[in-house]
Write a structure and sequence with these properties.
CATH topology: Metal Binding Protein, Guanine Nucleotide Exchange Factor, Chain A
Oligomer: single chain
Number of strands: 11
CATH architecture: Beta Complex
Bound molecules: zinc ion
Strand content: 35-45%
Low-confidence stretches: 142-146
Strand order of the largest sheet: 6-7-8-9-4-3-10-11
Helix content: 10-25%
Shape: globular
Number of domains: 1
Mean pLDDT: 92
């Protein structure tokens, strides 16, 4: 069971994040943008904006018309991806939070674009790029860039 409040930080410790009532699972995206930004496997977990508290030198890159990808301005650790509107959910990086070490993988998208080295096992939900775009035509920044 996830704890009610989890705390995380970037590599250098300058950015601190707390999340109340966290999801307790992670999802993976293998789209080209997430591969480039993460440098490897992009995993994240969703959190409503009112549950997230952030302090420290956050910088953000506007990665599309809709979304930005945030990182620590001191050490460069990736923090989250998010649409640029106040009500938008965060997609937070689980590696910042020790509590997330136990969380299962629940979903994997853009499976058909995954590098050969990263075939993830398990009975989690999987969707190809086409299946995902059909289901969420406006939900993800990747639709802007296809
Ligand atoms: Zn840092
Ligand atoms: Zn992606």
């Amino acid at each position: 069971m996830p704890s009610d409040v989890i705390s995380g930080q970037c590599l250098c410790g300058a950015v601190k994040i707390t999340v109340t009532d966290p999801s307790g699972w992670v999802g993976v995206c293998h789209c080209a943008m997430c591969q480039r930004w993460s440098g490897s496997v992009f995993a994240s977990f969703p959190a409503a904006p009112e549950t997230v508290t952030v302090s420290g030198p956050v910088k953000a890159h506007a990665s599309s018309q809709l979304a930005e990808r945030a990182f620590c301005g001191t050490c460069g650790s990736h923090l989250w991806m998010r649409d640029r509107e106040e009500t938008a959910e965060y997609d937070l990086m689980p590696g910042l939070f020790e509590a997330a070490n136990d969380w299962p993988l629940r979903s994997e998208i853009y499976c058909d674009e995954a590098p050969a080295a990263f075939s993830l096992e398990g009975d989690h939900r999987k969707a190809t790029a086409e299946q995902y775009r059909a289901k969420y035509p406006h939900a993800q920044e990747v639709t802007d860039n296809v």
